[in-house]
Amino acid sequence: MTSPVTQTPPSFEDIKAAAGRIAGSIVRTPTMLSRTMSEIIGAEVWLKFENLQFTAAYKERGALNKLLHLTPEECRRGVVAASAGNHAQAVAYHGKRLGIPVTIVMPKSTPMVKVSQTEGHGAQVVLHGERFDDAYDHAKTLEAERGLVFVHPFDDPLVIAGAGTVALEMLEAAPNLDTLVVPIGGGGLISGIATAAKAIRPGIEVVGIEAELYPSMKNVVEGGHGAIGGDTLAEGIAVKEPGELTRRIIKDLVDRIDLVEEKHIEHAVALLVAIEKSVVEGAGAAGLAALLAHPEKYHGRKVGTVLCGGNIDTHLLANVLVRELVRRGHIARLKIAAQDRPGALAAITAKFHECDVNIIETNHHRIFTSLPAKDTVIEVECEARDAPAVDALVSRLEAAGFHVERASLD
């Protein structure tokens, strides 16, 4: 296999050829103007719903383009890939469609739901190592031992060309876009999009977005030294070592790379559910998160961003949605110090009733507290119609002589 360092980047003609090659086998997902997001951000905001692909991510485009280039002999031997997410499902799904044996190497820590989904598409899943790097190394070993074709998730001209078809569809649907905001993990998606977009509209601005905890591409392209690592909602772009081929393309074609904080990614995921009625994973919402975090950078512009995936764990999504309610002031947790005597709780709950705030849960803390032995801390989780209602409640409690502390996420 040719090293990414010596590979030739795909051309615009390669991307157009890929579009014809994969047409009919992937979903031509909608590119739609979001009127509400446009009003919030102060720009004309278009969303590309790649979360509506069959496997819920854009990865199908590049994987399929790669598989369609295999010789009959390579198809017979099969392919191997290393992935714990969207790339695994894309290769498995289209491999099964085309009758190509697929082996996917995943870290042992991969959630079983992702393992079963990948197996459900007909792939043989091999669990190896604790980290992605371990799985990747083992996949390369299997490539050599079994004569398999390795399908890289991003650092391959054919995979990049397939990803670039996203831009063709976006600019056909919204030809006046002047800015594209694209999440970056390994860099395959933005490399393909930038190649196509700059060929169609040379003056268009292409902005890459990385999670603040994983500024890998920004470091190598701009010479930064940002720390890399930590738990991020955008695990799909939590890449420690970006591509060799993709970094070359990004240096040439991407105008800048911005970072986005976790709280803004959470906010974007929640807003997409509330406003667009669409489930998008953290990595897929990173572009929109950047728009929401810094609307002044995009004011008055015609901006397109890719919702590149929708595979988010349902429990995690539930947590994100509840945390959004907390940030908006609809749910609050109050620690109320009171004397431990009859009637104290009734006096407190009366204030909740007066302010029309509903109590969800209460807990008394008498032992593990710094208060005097005759006092107690009553922790109350509550929900209200809006943040001012909680503010009014706290004011009434304090006016009645109670000391109140409010829990915060930030």
Concise summary:
The chain is α/β, with parallel strands linked by helices and 410 residues long.
Keywords:
410 residues; alpha/beta; Rossmann fold; Alpha-Beta Plaits; 6-stranded mixed sheet; 4-stranded parallel sheet
Walkthrough of the structure:
- There is one protein chain.
- The model has no long low-confidence stretch (mean pLDDT 93).
- The chain folds into three domains: 12-57 and 159-322, Rossmann fold (3-Layer(aba) Sandwich), CATH 3.40.50.1100; 79-147, 3-Layer(aba) Sandwich (Rossmann fold); 330-406, 2-Layer Sandwich (Alpha-Beta Plaits), CATH 3.30.70.
- It has 410 residues and is α/β, with parallel strands linked by helices.
- The chain is 43% helix and 19% strand.
- β7 (179-183), α9 (188-200) and β8 form a beta-alpha-beta unit.
- α10 (216-222) packs across α11 (244-253) and α12 (262-276) crosses α13 (286-293).
- It has 16 helices and 14 strands.
- The chain has a six-stranded mixed sheet with strand order 1-2-10-7-8-9, with helices on both faces. The protein has a four-stranded parallel sheet with strand order 5-4-3-6, sandwiched between helices. It has a four-stranded antiparallel sheet with strand order 12-13-11-14.
- It is elongated, with a radius of gyration of 25 Å.
- The longest helix is centred in the middle third of the chain and has 17 residues, at 157-173.
